[in-house]
Design goal:
Oligomer: heterodimer
Distance between the termini of chain B: 26 Å
Bound molecules: flavin-adenine dinucleotide
Largest sheet of chain B: none
Shape of chain B: globular
Radius of gyration of chain B: 13 Å
Order of helices and strands of chain B: HHHHHH
CATH superfamily of chain B: Cytochrome c-like domain
Number of strands of chain A: 26
CATH superfamily of the largest domain in chain A: FAD/NAD(P)-binding domain
Number of domains of chain A: 2
Structural class of chain B: mainly alpha
Strand order of the largest sheet of chain A: 5-2-1-9-21
Number of domains of chain B: 1
CATH architecture of the largest domain in chain A: 3-Layer(bba) Sandwich
Helix content of chain B: 40-55%
CATH class of chain B: Mainly Alpha
Strand content of chain A: 25-35%
Radius of gyration of chain A: 22 Å
Structural class of chain A: alpha/beta
Number of strands of chain B: 0
Largest sheet of chain A: 5 strands, parallel
Helix content of chain A: 25-40%
Protein backbone atom coordinates (compact mmCIF):
# COMPACT_ATOMS: atom_id res chain seq x y z
CA UNK A 1 0.00 0.00 0.00
CA UNK A 2 1.12 3.47 -0.71
CA UNK A 3 1.58 5.53 2.41
CA UNK A 4 -0.96 8.29 2.62
CA UNK A 5 0.79 11.48 3.44
CA UNK A 6 -1.19 14.01 5.37
CA UNK A 7 -3.62 16.00 3.29
CA UNK A 8 -2.25 19.26 1.92
CA UNK A 9 1.29 18.39 2.90
CA UNK A 10 3.71 19.86 0.42
CA UNK A 11 1.00 21.82 -1.31
CA UNK A 12 1.25 25.53 -1.78
CA UNK A 13 -2.20 26.49 -0.59
CA UNK A 14 -3.17 29.48 -2.67
CA UNK A 15 -4.77 32.67 -1.45
CA UNK A 16 -8.01 31.67 -3.13
CA UNK A 17 -8.22 28.54 -1.08
CA UNK A 18 -7.34 30.30 2.13
CA UNK A 19 -9.88 33.03 1.53
CA UNK A 20 -12.66 30.51 1.16
CA UNK A 21 -14.71 29.38 4.12
CA UNK A 22 -13.88 25.81 5.01
CA UNK A 23 -16.11 23.58 2.98
CA UNK A 24 -15.73 20.17 4.44
CA UNK A 25 -14.20 18.32 7.32
CA UNK A 26 -12.84 21.56 8.66
CA UNK A 27 -10.26 21.78 5.89
CA UNK A 28 -9.79 24.66 3.49
CA UNK A 29 -10.60 23.36 0.03
CA UNK A 30 -7.81 23.41 -2.49
CA UNK A 31 -8.46 25.54 -5.57
CA UNK A 32 -7.91 24.27 -9.10
CA UNK A 33 -8.15 26.79 -11.93
CA UNK A 34 -8.84 25.40 -15.40
CA UNK A 35 -8.23 27.61 -18.44
CA UNK A 36 -10.23 26.63 -21.53
CA UNK A 37 -13.75 25.19 -21.56
CA UNK A 38 -13.29 23.00 -24.63
CA UNK A 39 -12.80 19.25 -24.90
CA UNK A 40 -9.93 18.95 -22.44
CA UNK A 41 -10.65 21.73 -19.97
CA UNK A 42 -14.38 21.25 -19.47
CA UNK A 43 -13.79 17.51 -18.99
CA UNK A 44 -11.12 18.15 -16.37
CA UNK A 45 -13.33 20.66 -14.52
CA UNK A 46 -16.27 18.25 -14.40
CA UNK A 47 -14.19 15.23 -13.35
CA UNK A 48 -12.31 17.20 -10.68
CA UNK A 49 -15.62 18.05 -8.99
CA UNK A 50 -16.95 14.57 -9.55
CA UNK A 51 -13.86 12.93 -8.08
CA UNK A 52 -13.72 15.28 -5.10
CA UNK A 53 -16.79 17.43 -4.41
CA UNK A 54 -14.82 19.30 -1.75
CA UNK A 55 -12.50 20.80 -4.35
CA UNK A 56 -13.01 24.35 -5.48
CA UNK A 57 -12.83 24.41 -9.28
CA UNK A 58 -12.89 27.55 -11.41
CA UNK A 59 -13.19 27.28 -15.19
CA UNK A 60 -11.93 30.28 -17.15
CA UNK A 61 -13.34 30.31 -20.68
CA UNK A 62 -13.30 33.24 -23.09
CA UNK A 63 -16.62 32.49 -24.82
CA UNK A 64 -20.08 31.98 -23.33
CA UNK A 65 -20.96 29.34 -25.90
CA UNK A 66 -18.64 26.67 -27.27
CA UNK A 67 -18.96 25.56 -30.89
CA UNK A 68 -17.32 22.20 -31.46
CA UNK A 69 -14.95 21.55 -34.35
CA UNK A 70 -16.20 17.95 -34.35
CA UNK A 71 -19.27 17.84 -36.59
CA UNK A 72 -18.58 21.35 -37.93
CA UNK A 73 -17.77 19.66 -41.25
CA UNK A 74 -21.32 18.25 -41.20
CA UNK A 75 -22.57 21.81 -40.89
CA UNK A 76 -20.51 22.72 -43.99
CA UNK A 77 -22.06 19.72 -45.73
CA UNK A 78 -25.60 20.84 -44.86
CA UNK A 79 -26.25 17.89 -42.55
CA UNK A 80 -26.30 19.84 -39.24
CA UNK A 81 -27.09 23.35 -38.07
CA UNK A 82 -24.80 25.41 -35.88
CA UNK A 83 -27.13 25.19 -32.89
CA UNK A 84 -26.74 21.43 -32.74
CA UNK A 85 -22.95 21.79 -32.30
CA UNK A 86 -23.09 24.64 -29.77
CA UNK A 87 -22.85 24.03 -26.03
CA UNK A 88 -23.21 26.13 -22.90
CA UNK A 89 -21.84 25.98 -19.37
CA UNK A 90 -24.96 25.82 -17.20
CA UNK A 91 -24.65 22.10 -16.53
CA UNK A 92 -21.03 22.53 -15.43
CA UNK A 93 -22.19 25.28 -13.07
CA UNK A 94 -24.82 22.89 -11.73
CA UNK A 95 -21.99 20.42 -11.09
CA UNK A 96 -20.38 23.00 -8.83
CA UNK A 97 -17.82 24.43 -11.24
CA UNK A 98 -17.39 28.20 -10.97
CA UNK A 99 -17.40 29.40 -14.57
CA UNK A 100 -15.77 32.73 -15.38
CA UNK A 101 -16.03 34.13 -18.89
CA UNK A 102 -12.78 36.02 -19.43
CA UNK A 103 -9.46 35.49 -21.16
CA UNK A 104 -6.52 34.29 -19.10
CA UNK A 105 -3.67 36.59 -20.03
CA UNK A 106 -0.78 35.80 -17.74
CA UNK A 107 0.43 33.09 -15.40
CA UNK A 108 2.82 33.56 -12.51
CA UNK A 109 3.98 30.03 -11.74
CA UNK A 110 5.99 31.05 -8.67
CA UNK A 111 3.19 33.04 -7.05
CA UNK A 112 0.64 30.50 -8.38
CA UNK A 113 -1.70 33.09 -9.87
CA UNK A 114 -3.37 33.68 -13.20
CA UNK A 115 -4.36 37.12 -14.45
CA UNK A 116 -7.59 37.57 -16.39
CA UNK A 117 -8.59 40.06 -19.09
CA UNK A 118 -10.88 41.88 -16.63
CA UNK A 119 -7.81 42.66 -14.52
CA UNK A 120 -8.68 40.23 -11.73
CA UNK A 121 -6.36 37.57 -10.40
CA UNK A 122 -7.06 34.01 -9.37
CA UNK A 123 -4.83 32.08 -7.01
CA UNK A 124 -4.48 28.35 -7.60
CA UNK A 125 -3.07 25.27 -5.98
CA UNK A 126 -3.04 23.49 -9.32
CA UNK A 127 -3.50 25.05 -12.77
CA UNK A 128 -4.88 23.21 -15.79
CA UNK A 129 -4.42 24.67 -19.27
CA UNK A 130 -6.38 23.33 -22.23
CA UNK A 131 -6.29 26.30 -24.61
CA UNK A 132 -6.34 24.35 -27.87
CA UNK A 133 -4.42 25.75 -30.82
CA UNK A 134 -3.45 29.16 -32.02
CA UNK A 135 -2.61 30.00 -35.61
CA UNK A 136 0.98 30.83 -36.53
CA UNK A 137 0.00 33.97 -38.40
CA UNK A 138 2.44 34.74 -41.17
CA UNK A 139 4.16 31.34 -41.06
CA UNK A 140 2.57 30.73 -44.45
CA UNK A 141 3.42 33.78 -46.59
CA UNK A 142 0.37 35.94 -47.18
CA UNK A 143 -1.78 34.35 -44.48
CA UNK A 144 -2.49 36.76 -41.64
CA UNK A 145 -5.67 37.66 -39.73
CA UNK A 146 -6.89 39.94 -42.52
CA UNK A 147 -6.40 37.13 -45.03
CA UNK A 148 -8.48 34.79 -42.85
CA UNK A 149 -11.47 37.12 -43.33
CA UNK A 150 -11.27 36.39 -47.08
CA UNK A 151 -9.93 32.83 -47.11
CA UNK A 152 -11.23 31.30 -43.86
CA UNK A 153 -9.37 28.57 -42.00
CA UNK A 154 -12.44 27.41 -40.08
CA UNK A 155 -10.02 25.38 -37.93
CA UNK A 156 -11.47 26.99 -34.80
CA UNK A 157 -15.22 26.58 -34.94
CA UNK A 158 -17.56 29.57 -34.82
CA UNK A 159 -17.63 32.67 -37.05
CA UNK A 160 -14.88 31.22 -39.26
CA UNK A 161 -16.95 28.09 -39.91
CA UNK A 162 -19.98 30.23 -40.71
CA UNK A 163 -17.94 32.33 -43.15
CA UNK A 164 -16.73 29.24 -45.02
CA UNK A 165 -20.27 27.84 -45.03
CA UNK A 166 -21.66 31.05 -46.50
CA UNK A 167 -18.92 31.32 -49.14
CA UNK A 168 -19.67 27.77 -50.28
CA UNK A 169 -23.39 28.62 -50.49
CA UNK A 170 -22.65 31.76 -52.53
CA UNK A 171 -20.34 29.94 -54.96
CA UNK A 172 -21.65 29.29 -58.49
CA UNK A 173 -22.06 25.73 -59.74
CA UNK A 174 -18.93 24.75 -61.64
CA UNK A 175 -16.61 26.54 -59.21
CA UNK A 176 -13.49 25.17 -57.56
CA UNK A 177 -13.07 24.76 -53.80
CA UNK A 178 -9.36 24.73 -52.94
CA UNK A 179 -8.06 23.47 -49.58
CA UNK A 180 -4.51 24.29 -48.45
CA UNK A 181 -3.10 21.97 -45.76
CA UNK A 182 -0.41 22.90 -43.26
CA UNK A 183 3.08 21.71 -42.50
CA UNK A 184 3.78 20.50 -38.99
CA UNK A 185 1.44 18.96 -36.43
CA UNK A 186 -2.17 20.14 -36.74
CA UNK A 187 -5.38 19.43 -34.85
CA UNK A 188 -7.46 16.51 -36.10
CA UNK A 189 -5.37 14.64 -38.72
CA UNK A 190 -8.43 13.24 -40.59
CA UNK A 191 -10.34 16.56 -40.35
CA UNK A 192 -9.33 18.07 -43.72
CA UNK A 193 -10.38 14.95 -45.61
CA UNK A 194 -13.70 14.74 -43.80
CA UNK A 195 -14.20 18.39 -44.74
CA UNK A 196 -13.50 17.63 -48.42
CA UNK A 197 -16.02 14.76 -48.17
CA UNK A 198 -18.75 16.90 -46.65
CA UNK A 199 -18.25 19.70 -49.17
CA UNK A 200 -18.37 17.05 -51.92
CA UNK A 201 -21.70 15.89 -50.49
CA UNK A 202 -23.03 19.45 -50.64
CA UNK A 203 -21.72 19.97 -54.18
CA UNK A 204 -23.19 16.65 -55.36
CA UNK A 205 -26.63 17.63 -54.15
CA UNK A 206 -26.56 21.37 -55.03
CA UNK A 207 -23.65 22.19 -57.37
CA UNK A 208 -22.70 18.99 -59.19
CA UNK A 209 -20.34 20.55 -61.75
CA UNK A 210 -18.04 21.91 -59.03
CA UNK A 211 -14.59 20.55 -58.13
CA UNK A 212 -12.49 20.16 -54.98
CA UNK A 213 -8.70 20.47 -55.01
CA UNK A 214 -6.68 19.49 -51.91
CA UNK A 215 -3.13 20.85 -51.86
CA UNK A 216 -1.34 18.77 -49.25
CA UNK A 217 1.96 19.18 -47.44
CA UNK A 218 1.95 15.45 -46.69
CA UNK A 219 2.77 12.37 -48.72
CA UNK A 220 -0.03 10.33 -47.23
CA UNK A 221 -2.83 10.98 -44.80
CA UNK A 222 -4.99 9.58 -42.05
CA UNK A 223 -7.38 6.79 -43.16
CA UNK A 224 -6.29 7.50 -46.76
CA UNK A 225 -7.37 4.21 -48.41
CA UNK A 226 -10.77 4.46 -46.69
CA UNK A 227 -11.32 8.06 -47.71
CA UNK A 228 -10.25 7.40 -51.29
CA UNK A 229 -12.49 4.34 -51.48
CA UNK A 230 -15.41 6.44 -50.22
CA UNK A 231 -14.70 9.31 -52.61
CA UNK A 232 -14.60 6.87 -55.51
CA UNK A 233 -17.92 5.37 -54.46
CA UNK A 234 -19.81 8.58 -53.64
CA UNK A 235 -18.14 11.42 -55.54
CA UNK A 236 -16.29 9.95 -58.54
CA UNK A 237 -14.02 12.51 -60.22
CA UNK A 238 -14.95 15.39 -57.91
CA UNK A 239 -12.03 15.45 -55.44
CA UNK A 240 -8.42 15.82 -56.58
CA UNK A 241 -5.74 15.26 -53.93
CA UNK A 242 -2.21 16.51 -54.62
CA UNK A 243 0.55 15.14 -52.40
CA UNK A 244 3.59 17.17 -51.40
CA UNK A 245 5.87 15.48 -53.94
CA UNK A 246 3.32 16.14 -56.70
CA UNK A 247 3.71 19.85 -55.96
CA UNK A 248 0.99 20.00 -53.33
CA UNK A 249 3.02 22.08 -50.89
CA UNK A 250 1.71 25.65 -50.84
CA UNK A 251 4.31 28.32 -50.02
CA UNK A 252 2.23 31.46 -50.41
CA UNK A 253 -1.41 32.51 -50.59
CA UNK A 254 -3.01 35.61 -52.05
CA UNK A 255 -6.29 35.78 -50.17
CA UNK A 256 -7.68 38.78 -52.09
CA UNK A 257 -7.13 37.04 -55.42
CA UNK A 258 -8.08 33.66 -53.87
CA UNK A 259 -4.89 32.08 -55.15
CA UNK A 260 -2.53 29.48 -53.69
CA UNK A 261 1.06 29.31 -54.95
CA UNK A 262 2.93 26.00 -54.76
CA UNK A 263 6.61 25.27 -54.23
CA UNK A 264 7.16 24.89 -57.98
CA UNK A 265 5.42 28.21 -58.63
CA UNK A 266 2.08 27.00 -59.89
CA UNK A 267 -0.80 29.38 -59.07
CA UNK A 268 -4.11 27.69 -58.27
CA UNK A 269 -7.15 29.93 -58.60
CA UNK A 270 -10.02 29.15 -56.24
CA UNK A 271 -13.63 30.26 -56.09
CA UNK A 272 -13.62 29.40 -52.40
CA UNK A 273 -10.25 29.13 -50.68
CA UNK A 274 -9.88 27.31 -47.33
CA UNK A 275 -6.44 27.72 -45.81
CA UNK A 276 -5.69 25.45 -42.84
CA UNK A 277 -2.57 27.22 -41.59
CA UNK A 278 0.39 26.11 -39.46
CA UNK A 279 -0.47 25.89 -35.75
CA UNK A 280 0.97 26.04 -32.24
CA UNK A 281 -0.26 25.69 -28.66
CA UNK A 282 -2.76 28.32 -27.50
CA UNK A 283 -0.99 31.55 -26.46
CA UNK A 284 -1.57 31.16 -22.71
CA UNK A 285 0.69 28.09 -22.76
CA UNK A 286 3.60 30.17 -23.97
CA UNK A 287 2.77 32.91 -21.45
CA UNK A 288 2.89 30.28 -18.70
CA UNK A 289 6.33 29.12 -19.84
CA UNK A 290 5.28 25.55 -20.58
CA UNK A 291 6.00 25.48 -24.34
CA UNK A 292 9.32 24.37 -25.83
CA UNK A 293 11.07 25.51 -29.02
CA UNK A 294 8.47 23.69 -31.15
CA UNK A 295 5.68 25.93 -29.85
CA UNK A 296 3.96 22.91 -28.28
CA UNK A 297 3.91 21.68 -24.67
CA UNK A 298 5.98 18.73 -23.42
CA UNK A 299 4.14 16.83 -20.67
CA UNK A 300 4.66 13.93 -18.32
CA UNK A 301 2.56 11.32 -20.04
CA UNK A 302 1.50 9.57 -16.84
CA UNK A 303 -0.44 12.64 -15.58
CA UNK A 304 -0.29 15.43 -18.20
CA UNK A 305 1.61 17.76 -15.94
CA UNK A 306 4.00 20.13 -17.70
CA UNK A 307 7.49 18.66 -18.05
CA UNK A 308 8.86 22.16 -17.46
CA UNK A 309 6.72 23.76 -14.73
CA UNK A 310 5.43 21.59 -11.85
CA UNK A 311 1.89 22.30 -10.73
CA UNK A 312 0.67 23.24 -14.22
CA UNK A 313 -1.21 20.52 -16.11
CA UNK A 314 -1.70 20.85 -19.85
CA UNK A 315 -4.20 18.94 -21.99
CA UNK A 316 -5.30 18.39 -25.52
CA UNK A 317 -4.14 19.93 -28.77
CA UNK A 318 -1.57 22.14 -27.01
CA UNK A 319 0.50 19.15 -25.86
CA UNK A 320 3.08 16.87 -27.44
CA UNK A 321 1.32 13.57 -26.78
CA UNK A 322 2.11 11.43 -29.79
CA UNK A 323 1.26 8.69 -30.52
CA UNK A 324 -2.07 10.16 -29.35
CA UNK A 325 -3.50 12.41 -32.07
CA UNK A 326 -4.73 15.95 -31.45
CA UNK A 327 -8.41 15.09 -31.11
CA UNK A 328 -11.32 16.01 -28.87
CA UNK A 329 -11.56 12.40 -27.74
CA UNK A 330 -7.87 12.38 -26.75
CA UNK A 331 -8.21 15.71 -24.92
CA UNK A 332 -11.17 14.34 -22.96
CA UNK A 333 -9.33 11.22 -21.78
CA UNK A 334 -6.25 13.29 -20.91
CA UNK A 335 -8.54 15.56 -18.85
CA UNK A 336 -9.82 12.57 -16.88
CA UNK A 337 -6.31 11.28 -16.20
CA UNK A 338 -5.11 14.73 -15.11
CA UNK A 339 -8.17 15.26 -12.87
CA UNK A 340 -7.55 11.94 -11.12
CA UNK A 341 -3.84 12.75 -10.74
CA UNK A 342 -4.56 16.17 -9.25
CA UNK A 343 -7.10 14.77 -6.79
CA UNK A 344 -4.65 12.09 -5.69
CA UNK A 345 -1.75 14.50 -5.38
CA UNK A 346 -3.70 17.04 -3.38
CA UNK A 347 -4.58 14.21 -1.00
CA UNK A 348 -0.95 13.15 -0.78
CA UNK A 349 -1.39 9.97 -2.80
CA UNK A 350 0.34 8.71 -5.94
CA UNK A 351 -1.67 9.36 -9.12
CA UNK A 352 -3.58 6.33 -10.42
CA UNK A 353 -2.30 4.43 -13.43
CA UNK A 354 -2.92 6.41 -16.61
CA UNK A 355 -5.13 4.91 -19.31
CA UNK A 356 -6.23 6.75 -22.45
CA UNK A 357 -8.05 6.04 -25.67
CA UNK A 358 -8.97 7.75 -28.89
CA UNK A 359 -11.51 7.23 -31.63
CA UNK A 360 -11.99 9.61 -34.55
CA UNK A 361 -15.09 8.95 -36.58
CA UNK A 362 -15.25 10.64 -39.98
CA UNK A 363 -18.35 10.97 -42.12
CA UNK A 364 -17.71 10.59 -45.85
CA UNK A 365 -21.38 10.88 -46.81
CA UNK A 366 -24.79 10.35 -45.21
CA UNK A 367 -24.82 6.79 -43.90
CA UNK A 368 -21.14 6.33 -44.76
CA UNK A 369 -18.82 6.51 -41.74
CA UNK A 370 -15.27 5.35 -41.01
CA UNK A 371 -13.10 5.39 -37.88
CA UNK A 372 -9.63 5.15 -36.44
CA UNK A 373 -8.99 4.10 -32.84
CA UNK A 374 -6.22 3.51 -30.34
CA UNK A 375 -5.73 2.61 -26.67
CA UNK A 376 -2.85 4.21 -24.82
CA UNK A 377 -0.96 3.95 -21.54
CA UNK A 378 2.03 5.71 -20.02
CA UNK A 379 5.47 4.16 -19.79
CA UNK A 380 7.21 6.39 -17.30
CA UNK A 381 6.70 9.87 -18.65
CA UNK A 382 5.91 8.77 -22.19
CA UNK A 383 2.56 8.00 -23.78
CA UNK A 384 2.61 4.68 -25.59
CA UNK A 385 0.08 2.90 -27.76
CA UNK A 386 -0.93 -0.55 -26.52
CA UNK A 387 0.42 -2.98 -29.04
CA UNK A 388 -2.23 -4.71 -31.10
CA UNK A 389 -4.95 -2.24 -30.14
CA UNK A 390 -6.74 0.18 -32.40
CA UNK A 391 -6.39 0.75 -36.11
CA UNK A 392 -8.74 1.81 -38.88
CA UNK A 393 -12.05 0.42 -40.14
CA UNK A 394 -11.61 -2.54 -42.48
CA UNK A 395 -11.42 -1.72 -46.19
CA UNK A 396 -13.35 -4.72 -47.48
CA UNK A 397 -16.77 -4.52 -45.84
CA UNK A 398 -20.30 -3.96 -47.07
CA UNK A 399 -22.47 -0.86 -46.74
CA UNK A 400 -23.97 -2.03 -43.40
CA UNK A 401 -20.62 -1.53 -41.69
CA UNK A 402 -20.24 2.01 -43.08
CA UNK A 403 -23.84 2.79 -42.14
CA UNK A 404 -23.33 1.49 -38.59
CA UNK A 405 -20.20 3.62 -38.20
CA UNK A 406 -22.07 6.70 -39.44
CA UNK A 407 -24.72 6.09 -36.77
CA UNK A 408 -22.21 5.29 -34.06
CA UNK A 409 -20.31 8.46 -34.98
CA UNK A 410 -23.43 10.48 -34.21
CA UNK A 411 -23.84 8.42 -31.03
CA UNK A 412 -20.28 9.25 -30.02
CA UNK A 413 -20.97 12.96 -30.50
CA UNK A 414 -24.10 12.81 -28.32
CA UNK A 415 -22.28 10.86 -25.61
CA UNK A 416 -19.12 12.94 -25.41
CA UNK A 417 -21.09 16.21 -25.36
CA UNK A 418 -23.21 14.82 -22.51
CA UNK A 419 -20.03 13.73 -20.73
CA UNK A 420 -18.35 17.13 -21.11
CA UNK A 421 -20.96 19.92 -21.17
CA UNK A 422 -23.92 17.86 -19.97
CA UNK A 423 -25.71 18.55 -23.24
CA UNK A 424 -28.90 16.55 -23.59
CA UNK A 425 -29.71 15.47 -27.12
CA UNK B 1 -1.68 -3.25 -3.97
CA UNK B 2 -1.25 -4.13 -7.59
CA UNK B 3 -0.55 -1.29 -9.94
CA UNK B 4 -1.14 -2.97 -13.26
CA UNK B 5 0.69 -1.59 -16.19
CA UNK B 6 -1.79 -2.14 -18.97
CA UNK B 7 0.64 -3.72 -21.43
CA UNK B 8 1.85 -6.09 -18.76
CA UNK B 9 -1.64 -7.26 -18.00
CA UNK B 10 -2.21 -7.81 -21.68
CA UNK B 11 0.97 -9.81 -22.11
CA UNK B 12 0.36 -11.90 -19.03
CA UNK B 13 -3.29 -12.66 -19.80
CA UNK B 14 -4.10 -12.56 -16.11
CA UNK B 15 -6.55 -14.93 -14.57
CA UNK B 16 -10.10 -13.73 -13.80
CA UNK B 17 -9.50 -14.19 -10.11
CA UNK B 18 -7.23 -11.19 -10.14
CA UNK B 19 -9.89 -8.84 -11.49
CA UNK B 20 -10.84 -7.58 -8.05
CA UNK B 21 -7.25 -6.68 -7.32
CA UNK B 22 -7.20 -3.77 -9.73
CA UNK B 23 -7.15 -0.67 -7.58
CA UNK B 24 -10.50 1.17 -7.70
CA UNK B 25 -8.79 4.47 -8.52
CA UNK B 26 -7.00 2.81 -11.45
CA UNK B 27 -10.25 1.24 -12.58
CA UNK B 28 -12.10 4.56 -12.52
CA UNK B 29 -9.46 6.00 -14.84
CA UNK B 30 -9.57 2.94 -17.09
CA UNK B 31 -13.36 3.31 -17.39
CA UNK B 32 -12.99 6.98 -18.34
CA UNK B 33 -12.82 6.63 -22.14
CA UNK B 34 -15.88 4.33 -22.24
CA UNK B 35 -18.13 7.28 -21.32
CA UNK B 36 -17.12 9.10 -24.52
CA UNK B 37 -19.18 6.61 -26.52
CA UNK B 38 -21.44 4.89 -24.00
CA UNK B 39 -22.37 8.12 -22.20
CA UNK B 40 -21.66 9.36 -18.67
CA UNK B 41 -21.46 6.31 -16.39
CA UNK B 42 -22.40 4.14 -19.35
CA UNK B 43 -25.81 5.78 -19.83
CA UNK B 44 -25.97 6.57 -23.51
CA UNK B 45 -28.07 9.42 -24.90
CA UNK B 46 -27.59 8.25 -28.50
CA UNK B 47 -27.06 5.39 -30.94
CA UNK B 48 -24.37 3.51 -29.02
CA UNK B 49 -25.83 1.00 -26.53
CA UNK B 50 -25.96 1.87 -22.83
CA UNK B 51 -23.80 -0.40 -20.70
CA UNK B 52 -24.78 0.81 -17.23
CA UNK B 53 -26.31 -2.06 -15.33
CA UNK B 54 -25.47 -4.68 -17.94
CA UNK B 55 -25.04 -7.95 -15.98
CA UNK B 56 -21.36 -8.47 -15.28
CA UNK B 57 -21.12 -11.92 -16.84
CA UNK B 58 -22.89 -10.90 -20.01
CA UNK B 59 -20.81 -7.75 -20.43
CA UNK B 60 -17.54 -9.60 -19.86
CA UNK B 61 -18.53 -12.34 -22.33
CA UNK B 62 -19.39 -9.75 -24.97
CA UNK B 63 -16.21 -7.78 -24.44
CA UNK B 64 -14.03 -10.89 -24.58
CA UNK B 65 -15.81 -11.97 -27.77
CA UNK B 66 -15.13 -8.54 -29.29
CA UNK B 67 -11.48 -8.92 -28.41
CA UNK B 68 -11.30 -12.35 -30.00
CA UNK B 69 -12.99 -11.10 -33.21
CA UNK B 70 -15.89 -13.45 -32.54
CA UNK B 71 -18.69 -10.93 -33.07
CA UNK B 72 -19.12 -10.39 -36.81
CA UNK B 73 -21.49 -7.44 -36.35
CA UNK B 74 -19.14 -5.42 -34.17
CA UNK B 75 -17.46 -2.33 -35.64
CA UNK B 76 -15.18 -0.55 -33.17
CA UNK B 77 -15.13 -2.68 -30.01
CA UNK B 78 -12.81 -5.38 -31.42
CA UNK B 79 -10.13 -2.74 -32.05
CA UNK B 80 -10.61 -1.13 -28.63
CA UNK B 81 -10.80 -4.32 -26.57
CA UNK B 82 -7.41 -5.45 -27.89
CA UNK B 83 -5.98 -2.71 -25.70
CA UNK B 84 -7.09 -4.44 -22.46
CA UNK B 85 -6.17 -7.65 -20.71
CA UNK B 86 -8.75 -10.19 -19.58
CA UNK B 87 -8.51 -9.14 -15.93
CA UNK B 88 -9.09 -5.54 -16.93
CA UNK B 89 -12.06 -6.45 -19.08
CA UNK B 90 -13.66 -8.40 -16.24
CA UNK B 91 -13.05 -5.52 -13.85
CA UNK B 92 -14.61 -3.06 -16.33
CA UNK B 93 -17.61 -5.35 -16.72
CA UNK B 94 -18.10 -5.32 -12.96
CA UNK B 95 -17.61 -1.55 -12.82
CA UNK B 96 -20.43 -0.85 -15.27
CA UNK B 97 -22.67 -3.53 -13.76
CA UNK B 98 -22.34 -1.82 -10.37
CA UNK B 99 -22.74 1.71 -11.75
CA UNK B 100 -26.23 0.70 -12.83
CA UNK B 101 -27.38 -0.26 -9.35
C1 LIG C 1 -12.82 20.41 -38.66
C2 LIG C 1 -12.45 19.66 -37.42
C3 LIG C 1 -13.08 18.46 -37.12
C4 LIG C 1 -12.76 17.77 -35.97
N1 LIG C 1 -13.39 16.58 -35.72
C5 LIG C 1 -13.05 15.86 -34.62
C6 LIG C 1 -13.72 14.63 -34.34
O1 LIG C 1 -14.59 14.17 -35.09
N2 LIG C 1 -13.36 13.96 -33.22
C7 LIG C 1 -12.42 14.43 -32.36
O2 LIG C 1 -12.16 13.78 -31.35
N3 LIG C 1 -11.77 15.61 -32.60
C8 LIG C 1 -12.06 16.32 -33.70
N4 LIG C 1 -11.44 17.52 -33.95
C9 LIG C 1 -10.35 17.97 -33.03
C10 LIG C 1 -10.88 18.70 -31.80
O3 LIG C 1 -11.64 19.81 -32.16
C11 LIG C 1 -9.72 19.16 -30.93
O4 LIG C 1 -8.75 18.15 -30.83
C12 LIG C 1 -10.20 19.53 -29.53
O5 LIG C 1 -11.06 20.65 -29.62
C13 LIG C 1 -9.03 19.80 -28.60
O6 LIG C 1 -9.48 20.14 -27.31
P1 LIG C 1 -8.70 21.23 -26.45
O7 LIG C 1 -9.30 21.22 -25.10
O8 LIG C 1 -7.25 21.05 -26.61
O9 LIG C 1 -9.03 22.62 -27.20
P2 LIG C 1 -10.45 23.27 -27.55
O10 LIG C 1 -11.50 22.26 -27.55
O11 LIG C 1 -10.23 24.08 -28.77
O12 LIG C 1 -10.75 24.24 -26.33
C14 LIG C 1 -9.95 25.36 -26.08
C15 LIG C 1 -10.81 26.39 -25.35
O13 LIG C 1 -9.96 27.26 -24.62
C16 LIG C 1 -10.43 28.58 -24.75
N5 LIG C 1 -9.27 29.44 -24.52
C17 LIG C 1 -8.08 29.41 -25.20
N6 LIG C 1 -7.22 30.29 -24.65
C18 LIG C 1 -7.88 30.88 -23.62
C19 LIG C 1 -7.50 31.86 -22.67
N7 LIG C 1 -6.30 32.42 -22.68
N8 LIG C 1 -8.41 32.24 -21.74
C20 LIG C 1 -9.66 31.67 -21.73
N9 LIG C 1 -10.06 30.73 -22.60
C21 LIG C 1 -9.17 30.34 -23.53
C22 LIG C 1 -11.03 28.65 -26.14
O14 LIG C 1 -11.98 29.68 -26.23
C23 LIG C 1 -11.65 27.26 -26.25
O15 LIG C 1 -12.97 27.25 -25.80
C24 LIG C 1 -11.76 18.27 -35.09
C25 LIG C 1 -11.13 19.47 -35.38
C26 LIG C 1 -11.45 20.16 -36.54
C27 LIG C 1 -10.77 21.46 -36.83
Amino acid sequence: MIARRSVLKGIGVGMGALALPSLARGQAAAHVVVVGGGFGGATAARYLRRGNPDLRVTLVEADERFVTCPFSNLYLGGLRDLDSITHGYDDLRAAGVEVVHARAEGVDAAARTVTLSDGSQLAWDRLVLSPGIDIRWGALAGYDEAAAALAPHAWKAGPQTQLLHDQLRAMEDGGTFVMVLPEGPFRCPPGPYERASMVAHYFTTEKPRSKILILDSQERFSKQPLFQQGWEALYPGMIEWVSQSDDGLVVEVDAAAREAVTGFGERHKADVLNVIPPQKAGAIAEAAGVTDETGWVPVRGDRFESALVPGIYVLGDATIANPMPKSGFSANTQGKVAAAAIIAELAGREPPTASFANTCYSLIGPGYGISVAGVYAADGGTVIEIEGSGGVSPLEVGPEFRRAEAEYGAGWYASICADIWGTRA
Amino acid sequence: MIRLAVPLALAAGLAPAQAQEIDPADLAVMAGPCANCHGPDGRSPGAIPSIAGLPEGEAAAKMLAFRADEDPKATIMPRLMKGYGEAEIRALARWFAEVGQ
